[in-house]
Amino acid sequence: MKTTKIIFWTTTILIFLFEGVMPALTSQTELAKEGIKHLGYPEYFGNALVVFKILGVLALIIPQVPGRIKEWAYAGFAFDFIFASISHFAVDGIDFQGFFPLIVLAILVVSYVTYHKIQRYNNIAL
């Protein structure tokens, strides 16, 4: 169980950094605004996305958040990564920018699976 918790917290903190801290610190830079525009999205979409990303990572990282909310956060991030990948492939063709969201999706899946292993263990221990 200790290994599972280490894997869970490592992957969840990576998601927290990639999807919470980095967007919060860089969302208003010209590079970020140009990236959203390059993909064909309006600027306000990028701002809304950052707000939801921050709320999502807070839901994942705070242990007291109910499981149902965490499930929605995991689902939201999964959709985000899948559609980010599709957007990059559609606009830029096959390149690393299209694959990177899928790599982060794999990290998210590991976080999700270990989260459920921990939940099952806690339910059995009760």
From TrEMBL:
Entries under InterPro entries matching the protein: DoxX (IPR032808), UCP030066 (IPR016944)
Subcellular location as annotated: Membrane
Membrane-traversing stretches: 44-65, 72-90, 96-115
Pfam family, one: DoxX_2
Keywords: Membrane, Transmembrane, Transmembrane helix
Main location: membrane
Record membrane topology: Multi-pass membrane protein
Name this protein carries in UniProt: DoxX family protein
The organism of origin for this protein: Flavobacterium quisquiliarum
